[in-house]
Amino acid sequence: MPELSLSMQKGRGRCSFSVLSSDGEFFVLEASLHHFSPSSTYYLSGDFNAFGTGSLNFNEGKCTFSLRWGDYSFIIRENQYSVICKGKIRLHPHGTFYHSRKRSFLDLYQGNYCIRLRTPSRYSKATLVAADRMVDMNEICSTSGYRYFEALLPSSLCGKRYHFLAGKERYPAGGAIILPALEETRPGWVPSSVFYQIFPDRFFRDGEERPYLSRWGEEHGPGRFFGGNLKGIMEKLDHISSLGASAIYLNPVFNAGTEHRYDTWDYFNVDPLLGSNEDLAALVSAAHGRGIRVILDAVFNHTGTGFEKFSGFLRGRNSWYIAHGDPPLSVYTGRYKGKGPEPEYETWEGVGAMPKLNFRNTSVRKYLLNVLSYWQQHAHVDGWRFDVGESLPLSFLKDACKLVYDNGRQGYMLGEIWHDASLWLEYGYYHGTMNYTFRQLIISLLLSEITVSEFIRRLSIFYLRIPYSASLCMYNLLGSHDVSRIASVLKTRHLVEAAYALLFALPGAPAVYYGDEFLMKGEGGDGARGTVDWNAECILCPLLSSLSKLRSRHAISHGLLSLQAQDGILKIFRGIGEENILFAINPSTEGKKLKAKGRTLLSSRASAANDKITLKSAGWIFIEL
Predict the structure, then answer these.
(1) For 123-154, what is each residue's pLDDT tens digit?
(2) Which of 390, 505, 511, 603 stands the most exposed, by the fewest C-beta atoms within 10 Å?
(3) pLDDT tens across 478-510, in order?
């Protein structure tokens, strides 16, 4: 069987793919354009890079990148708006046993090595042998004719030899591997954290009403300012702390032209409606005093048209953006949707008011790195969420990661990636990404759109494709400013509670979207950005506080993951060392029973007597085994 299969759809351009190297699990590919114009910009995008325009670019008609085996769709764009070529590629795994020093097979995090092994599917068990230890490996999943296993070893065994046993086979045959010294590449504080996301304009307003602001609680929508501010957030830090949150993610706070502030005008100054630079520093300081970290939104893919360099670009005086014509250029109004005249410059998603920055200009890169450095020094922020994270050049992210994380800073690099993020997580461009995959799986399970077995299959493959440390540093969410609120999606309180319980049981840092504790509702992105009614009952406060306390359990924050289906019940085992915890949930519409012996830590719609547990519909339970 060939390593690569390619199918192409007809288009005005042609390309080819070749395998430069492969170890049977990972592939280094080169994409080549048959014809190209030196004056044009060409982007390679696909489900392997979340269809981003900017992370994989052609240079003189060629683009080299690494992928794991699998089926992928791809698109090649010329000058962002024109699709010249698209098709599908399939990368075929080959060989039998596999283990390597790739981070998803050999990782080091928080004092433990995570070691993974691929075997032919005929082997149902595998053992890791290291020094005088024999460790039964945990099966992750079985797929494409292979099984994948993992186990943890203490970092104290660095320099010792290890090998694997499966059936009568030894791997490597007749030899052993030396456990190498590795650097930890992700911040240690993230896995045990609980995040709380805030859309500043709609959270809480400190101060009097002003005539140019909408009245708090009125119908919200694009273009309406309600005046939530940084001092208002500071006033509510005790509330955030009471939920058990230990980290805050703030939507953009820098000077901009809209209420969402994703159209930045000035990266070095807080928007006056939100407060001052001193207010931001004071907020972070007050949060730190409560043991709460703060990360900001880095909107670096594009700016607003009010940014200082844009007017000069239109007149041809700088190359901070990417032009598709000769100056003078016109500002594109509205959003380009594939018909009519194209914008004369590249944008975010065709929106003329959000021109895309040109990262080939070294001045752009230096400026944005200075932005990160400035706020880390002046406000002591703890990390950044990178907006449109799939479209930022990998080389820039590498430099940003050094600045944010290295030299003891332990800053968090969070990428906005909506799809498969393994490209960024395998090579450490981001420490974690916004886990919309988990969100959709949880919703589909609780709405009976997929079975428990299908949930396990999809989740296991997702978990397999990223390093152990990355799985613990994912930002796991049920809501955000870009999707419908979870209370609107699931409708009932019981289902929302079940969704949050399941979220807290999975690897990664769980995130609460502001207002979810009040069961706020809202459809779509704009609809999910309402103002908080602070007189409403905080319905989920007790639950979220209790779930947050469970994150202090090492088995839940750092444990390996094992999934089982039992008569329609989903069983999640999390374990590390001698600590093991079972989470069981019944997503069906009828009651279910199971047996489990241990101490109940937290439950809802569940009853336990001796080792017999009854779970009502949407019932769940955490048990210390």
Answers:
(1) 999 999 999 899 999 999 999 999 999 999 99
(2) 603
(3) 999 999 999 999 999 999 999 999 999 999 999
- Which residues is 556 bridged to in the sheet? none
pLDDT at 1: 58
Which residues does the chain have with pLDDT short of 70?
1
> Which amino acid belongs to residue 38?
P
DSSP calls for 20-87 = EEE-SSEEEEEEEESS--TTS-EEEEETTTTT-SSSSB-BTTEEEEEEESEEEEEEEEETTTEEEEEE
| Backbone phi and psi for residue 301, each to the nearest 5 degrees, phi listed first | -70, -35
Catalytic machinery residues: 387, 416
Nearest CA among 424, 437, 193, 436 for reference residue 291 = 193
Q: Which residues of 470-482 are buried (b: 16+ CB within 10 A; e: fewer)?
A: bbbbbbbbbbbbe
The structure tokens listed for 554 are: 């090492």
Please report the pLDDT score of residue 500 as a whole number.
Answer: 98
Give backbone dihedrals phi and psi of 475, rounded to 5 degrees, phi first.
Answer: -100, 100
Task: At 431, list the tokens.
Answer: 């420490």
Which spans in 291-361 are helix H? Answer: 310-314
Question: Where in 342-483 does DSSP place strands (E)?
Answer: 347-348, 351-355, 383-386, 412-415, 432-435, 475-477
pLDDT, position 208: 79
Look at phi and psi of residue 621 and say left if phi exceeds 0, alpha if psi is from -120 to 50, else beta: beta
CA separation for the pair 150, 168 (Å, rounded)? 19
Query: 507-521 burial string, b = 16+ CB within 10 Å, else e?
Result: bbbbbbbbbbbbbbb
